[in-house]
Amino acid sequence: xxIPIEKPVLVTSALPYVNGECHIGHxxxxxxxxxxxxxxxxxxxxxxxxSGSDTHGTPIxxxxxxxxxxxxxxxxxxxxHFKQVFxxxxxxxxxxxxxxxxxxxxxxxDIVMKLIENGHVYKGEIKQAFCTTCxxxxxxxxxxxxxxxxxxxxxxxxxDQGCGKHLEPxxxxxxxxxxxxxxxxxxxxxxxxxxxxxxxxFLLDYLDTLGGTLNARNYAKEWVKKELLDWCxxxxxxxxxxxxxxxxxxxxxxxxxPIGYIAFTEELLAxxxxxxxxxxxxxxxxxxxxxxxxGTDIIYHxxxxxxxxxxxxxxxxxxxxxxxxxxxxxxxxxxxxRGDVVWVTEFLERFHPDTLRYYLVAQSSxxxxxxxxxxxxxxxxxxxxxxxxxxxxxxxxxxxxxNFGVVPDGDIEEEVFEAIKKTKEEVIxxxxxxxxxxxxxxxxxxxxxxxxxxxxxxxxxxxxxxDQGRERCGAIVxxxxxxxxxxxxxxxxxxxxxxxxxxxxxxxxxxxxxxxxDELLVPIESGxxxxxxxxLFEKVEL
Length: 542
Ligand SMILES: [Zn+2]
Ligand SMILES: [Zn+2]
Description:
Elements: E1 9-13, H1 24-42, E2 47-53, H2 58-67, H3 71-88, E3 95-98, H4 102-117, E4 121-131, E5 136-137, E6 143-146, E7 153-155, E8 173-177, E9 185-194, H5 200-209, E10 211-212, H6 214-226, E11 231-232, E12 234-235, E13 242-243, E14 246-251, H7 253-273, H8 280-283, E15 289-295, H9 299-313, E16 320-324, E17 327-329, H10 344-350, H11 353-362, E18 370-372, H12 374-403, H13 414-432, H14 436-457, H15 459-462, H16 466-491, H17 496-505
Helix pairs in contact: 2-3, 4-7, 4-9, 5-6, 5-9, 6-9, 11-12, 12-14, 12-16, 13-14, 13-16, 14-16, 16-17
This protein binds zinc ion (ZN) (2 copies).
């Protein structure tokens, strides 16, 4: 699916659940989303980028109970933590909100009311896990057991170790209480349901036209084709958005979490324009393109529940869902208890954020699993950033500064223009296909070309060969500076801070963050003073 350039684009990134610190697994979604936004802006699109903290649901309540504080106190702490991490990593949201905001409460109530009015919600009895020892019902994460679909161990609302399917209350087998560990029993309880089954035909058609990555579409289609169970949308909790007319029930966290995308758009646009209705062109009037970046673990929620809710309540539908593969650590699944985890704040104490941004996209293609290891991180930094690109910049700028001090005179050769043109095309098509690895590989190839062009022309010999030699030498240098300029523009999306540094070394005075792709083929101006070159990247020692 080609994103139309004449419409504004809203890019969202999945909401981090704020009951713990950010680890590098989280970043697999946020960093590529940020790269995508930066590239689309360079391509001339009008892009808005929002996300926020997911603040409701049982894990936060459990974690508050364990610490003897309120859920509100848990979210304040980690909301601030995630905001800080995104700032340090230059993941530049236009707006980062949180789902406990008044706007989100109001928007969720509105959508649930519309679903009720349109006949999509009914009252029913379910078998809910109940712990006789603790004397309480066990919603979602309060219960653990076995997945009825694949037999792996699962949480109350999700098969997190196995097939990844969302589980309805009462579906889990051999339920145990998470608090006391005892066997739970099932008791009947009254809840509200969304008639998800009646959206089957709509979803099959919708998924056929949905843009984004194939893994999202295909995974969702498979579950829709099998059979959709109606969806229990209420829980017995104090913490959350109240179900209309029921003080004892809140809506399930997966109802109000994605509605956060709408609430954040409302909050941002109202503050920006003063117009309370500005959000409507994105979510009601179909005048914009909405692209969701998520992880593969929440495809079910974004490709099944979410479009059904939007459709049922009369809202516009997202155009694309982009699902990144999960991150493993040395071949193992993330586990805080086993220590198989890399915390982002600890990482940033030792390494530059841009090296992590680069690694996350260069290591494996977006939809595939990424297996993090310190060896592979060191390899990417040392063999690519230091040896290919960093070397090109340092070597050429040092030579140019020493012999010319400014960008020398000369014409850009056809060969160089062609190489840049080809890279530009490869990069655009890679970004449009969410192939971020192909994007950085193409740019690294251009840096390789720069190194071999400089090597082949031997300007260090030319400089000693009189006026004619010096003139030819200057032209060679100018051509390589043109290549470096192009690489900076392209890689700004991936390594914004480092490219700002390189841009300054080139003596450029405009803002590398807002330069458009059209600039790639504009010849670098002769006569601008080059700045003192410094090494852009340090070698990683293990
Ligand atoms: Zn399963
Ligand atoms: Zn119990």
